Recover the amino acids of this structure.
């Protein structure tokens, strides 16, 4: 009787399979979990780190801007002249204004939210009026002017320094003869106001309004929006009179009680209502920048302005410079983002290759097991499902753990992108092994054929794909060179694509020279060299993944290292151009005679160059000033040579005057083109005149910044003009505080190191640098892991080979040399190819890479050389480290195989 087997329940068999596999290979499972957790953590951390430093940069930009630039001013005039006086007075009272303020705050378009602690409302006169009181200060004989302001929240934002807060007795109207006011401490000090002072403000068709000062206030948080949006409330201003010589007058503010605002209608001050809205910067995010721009534009001239008018008054207008601040930040971010994207794409590519290699290594190790299962009837789909479940049991918890670590380590950023990145890593880790196994076991067979490059020839499809990739790479490189990094994401992929194309080219070419070298080595007496070269030339056809990962990692490391080195060099160069040396001590008047000797003895000072600078010198007495610097030719020539700023020979300035009684001079191109090479007089600040002739032209010089200067021998100047006014110092670890104490308060001390630090002006710059450095370091770590995985994949075969050769008389030393020589060609090829590819990538892409934004706080810094340059350390160190790791691993494997002996590798029925 034929017994029909019952169908297998996959759901019942799946769990025992997975449990059995995990128990038999716990080390492999733990290694996979660690790899997935680490990769998921890094992938999830990247977008959150970018969000955090971009948000910090936005908050920094908003905090650096003055409140009068970031606040949103909603204001309305009393434009209807036919409105009855009583209704006009009612419009200025706190009740209606407060209700309108609440509506205005609610109507702000998101993501713009008002900071209620610093926002306020009130009434303010727009035309300051002359105060005729004779006791007020009159610097030029002109009376002081005052504006009247009734701003809500005065008690909450100030402390009473003297007197009390102003009050309003009864119902104040336009005819009220007297009101109370307060002033700030600064206003009181500058305008000689005391508690009880009386100030008269001219009236409109009535007697002057009497303002009695009842209190002097100290502002709380004077730099924040409540007091600084309209700074005149806090600090009076000494205003120059237009079209006059040094005529000035004081203008200040008198702070009335909110209930006293209707009294302003009795003056010619033209009172306006206003609702002053300070944005809550803590709730603003860089990823909402486009929405923030739209919100501000809508407030200034869009639908939101119409809504504000409906809530307040038809004449309401909105004014803010917040859009300018946002645009400035957006420009800085736009210059930084593409550079960070280059590092992200490079590191992401290497991490993806490592995950693929891990799955491929697992599939290769279990090739015999999976082939046997297929031979016994396992379906391709069922086998892939079992392997997917087996991997998912490990990868899913590991991916969740990596995501949780990233979320905890970097709080306050968006989660969706982090979740998507971690999920992508987990899916790739889960799918690699089953897909690789399904592809390798499409056909049921027990013994596979050879898979080295000698027998596996590239297919036409692969050739077409590689040529397509090369074409895309050339297009990306050309686009980046033409358009810079401001193009699409393809330009950011250019360094990665160059590395991938180079890897594919090397995989095709590198067996050829090895096979050519194997022929002459066959005639040598020893067999180790010939055998190692022959084996290296017949390496596995799957070596494209390790080589791809290594070249991509080395290219990314070289590119990233060059970016960071270029940033450092640009800042250092800009600081050098600003200071002129490692430190600069300068005063407007001649320095004390003993100061140079004291500075020379200061710690860290190696060289000192004294310079006398006359910024008011006038060539040809034509009214145009050109800085004239007197120097010691020998010392100054050495300084110019050391700093690379207009090097020249000391003899070109040294010695006696020329035959025409003119001093030789070094000049900038603009000065040289204007005055030529003929002798011309230069009138100095002390009235003396010296005749000079321009003999040397240089673009830059250490003593003077800018594009106009004259440098002459100090010995040819008068005694008063030759006294040093500046000292240029060369040295390391210069102590700024000590130099300032020695120089005294009359001299300004600049340090190159301090100037360099000024160029890191935004968390956007420093954050991008940290993320870039972390991405490069992660890429280097993955490169080492790639190398270890590739060596681990070949470890069983090499171990078996050594065991068999040992039975034929191979010594341990010969076995060690065999493994090292076999590994060196691939490692040397990857190292040399990576260094060459990195160098070529930098040379190809440098015309399109501008580091000015990330390097310097402002594009007005005195340098135009923030460009990408080759950094030798970034090229050599990773390549050498990779060769050393390869040699070390091969040596350790040979040593370990020698200790184990040959018996475990020579089992009966061994099929390796």
């Amino acid at each position: 009787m034929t017994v029909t087997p019952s169908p297998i329940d996959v759901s019942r068999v799946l769990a025992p399979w997975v449990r059995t596999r995990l128990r038999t290979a716990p080390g492999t499972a733990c290694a996979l979990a660690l790899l997935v957790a680490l990769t998921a953590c890094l992938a999830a951390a990247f977008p959150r780190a970018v969000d955090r430093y971009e948000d910090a940069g936005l908050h920094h930009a908003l905090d650096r801007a003055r409140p009068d630039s970031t606040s949103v001013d909603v204001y309305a005039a009393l434009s209807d002249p036919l409105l009855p006086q009583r209704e006009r007075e009612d419009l200025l009272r706190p009740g209606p204004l407060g209700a309108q303020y609440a509506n205005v705050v609610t109507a702000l378009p998101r993501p713009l939210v008002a900071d209620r602690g610093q926002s306020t409302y009130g009434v303010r006169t727009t035309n300051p009026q002359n105060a005729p009181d004779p006791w007020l200060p009159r610097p030029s004989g002109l009376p002081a002017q005052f504006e009247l302001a009734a701003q809500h929240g005065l008690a909450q934002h100030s402390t009473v320094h003297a007197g009390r807060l102003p009050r309003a007795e009864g119902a104040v109207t336009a005819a009220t003869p007297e009101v109370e006011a307060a002033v700030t401490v600064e206003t009181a000090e500058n305008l000689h106001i005391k508690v009880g002072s009386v100030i008269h403000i001219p009236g409109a068709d009535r007697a002057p309004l009497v303002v009695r000062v009842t209190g002097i206030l100290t502002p709380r948080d004077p730099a924040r929006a409540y007091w600084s949006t309209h700074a005149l409330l806090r600090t009076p201003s000494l205003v120059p009179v237009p079209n006059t010589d040094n005529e000035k007058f004081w203008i200040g503010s008198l702070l009335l009680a909110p209930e006293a605002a209707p009294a302003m209608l009795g003056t010619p001050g033209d009172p306006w209502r206003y609702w002053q809205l300070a944005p809550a910067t803590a709730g603003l995010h860089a990823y909402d920048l486009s929405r923030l721009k739209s919100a501000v534009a809508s407030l200034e001239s869009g639908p939101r302005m119409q809504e504000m008018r409906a809530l307040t008054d038809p004449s309401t207008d909105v004014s803010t410079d917040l859009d300018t601040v946002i645009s400035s930040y957006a420009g800085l971010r736009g210059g930084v983002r593409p550079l960070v994207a280059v590092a992200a794409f490079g590191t992401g590519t290497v991490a993806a290759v490592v995950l693929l290699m891990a799955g491929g290594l697992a599939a290769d190790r279990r090739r015999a097991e999976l082939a046997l299962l297929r031979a016994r009837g396992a379906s391709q789909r069922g086998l892939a499902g079992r392997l997917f479940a087996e991997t998912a049991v490990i990868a899913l918890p590991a991916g969740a753990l990596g995501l949780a670590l990233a979320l905890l380590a970097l709080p306050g950023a968006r989660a969706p992108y982090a979740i998507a990145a971690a999920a992508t890593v987990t899916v790739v880790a889960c799918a690699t092994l089953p897909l690789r196994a399904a592809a390798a076991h499409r056909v049921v067979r027990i013994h596979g054929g050879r898979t080295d490059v000698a027998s596996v020839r590239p297919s036409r499809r692969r050739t077409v794909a590689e040529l397509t990739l090369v074409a895309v790479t050339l297009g990306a490189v050309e686009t980046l060179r033409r358009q810079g990094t401001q193009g699409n994401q393809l330009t950011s992929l250019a360094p990665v694509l160059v590395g991938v194309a180079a890897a594919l080219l090397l995989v095709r070419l590198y067996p050829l020279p090895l096979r050519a070298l194997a022929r002459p080595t066959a005639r040598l007496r020893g067999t180790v060299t010939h055998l190692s070269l022959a084996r290296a030339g017949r390496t596995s056809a799957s070596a494209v993944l390790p080589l791809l990962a290594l070249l991509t990692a080395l290219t990314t490391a070289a590119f990233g290292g060059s970016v960071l080195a270029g940033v450092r060099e640009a800042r250092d160069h800009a600081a050098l151009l600003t200071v002129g040396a490692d430190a600069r001590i300068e005063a407007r008047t001649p320095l004390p005679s003993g100061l140079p000797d004291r500075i020379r003895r200061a710690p860290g000072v190696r060289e000192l160059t004294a310079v006398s600078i006359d910024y008011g010198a006038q060539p040809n007495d034509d009214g145009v000033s050109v800085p004239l610097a007197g120097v010691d030719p020998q010392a100054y020539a050495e300084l110019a040579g050391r700093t690379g700023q207009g090097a020249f020979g000391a003899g070109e300035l040294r010695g006696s005057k020329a035959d025409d009684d003119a001093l030789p001079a070094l000049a900038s191109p603009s000065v040289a083109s204007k005055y030529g090479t003929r002798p011309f007089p230069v009138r100095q600040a002390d009235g003396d005149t010296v005749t000079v002739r321009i003999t040397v032209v240089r673009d830059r010089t250490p003593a003077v910044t800018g594009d106009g200067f004259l440098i002459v021998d100090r010995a040819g100047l008068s005694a008063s003009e030759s006294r040093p006014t500046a000292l240029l110092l060369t040295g390391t670890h210069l102590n700024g505080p000590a130099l300032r104490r020695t120089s005294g308060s009359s001299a300004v001390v600049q340090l190159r190191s301090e100037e360099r630090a000024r160029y890191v002006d935004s968390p956007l710059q420093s954050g991008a640098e940290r993320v870039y450095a972390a991405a490069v370091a992660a890429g280097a770590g993955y490169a080492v892991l790639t190398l270890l995985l590739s060596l681990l994949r070949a470890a069983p075969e090499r171990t078996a080979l050594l065991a068999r050769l040992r039975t034929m008389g191979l010594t341990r030393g010969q076995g060690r040399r065999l493994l090292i020589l076999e590994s060196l060609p691939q490692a040397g090829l990857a190292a040399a190819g990576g260094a060459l590819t990195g160098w070529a990538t930098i040379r190809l892409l440098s015309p399109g890479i501008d580091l000015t934004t990330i390097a310097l706080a402002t594009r007005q810094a005195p340098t135009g050389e923030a460009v990408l340059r080759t950094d030798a350390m970034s090229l050599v160190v990773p390549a050498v480290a990779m060769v050393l790791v390869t040699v070390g691993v091969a040596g350790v494997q040979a040593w370990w195989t020698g200790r184990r002996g040959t018996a475990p590798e020579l089992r009966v029925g061994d099929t390796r």
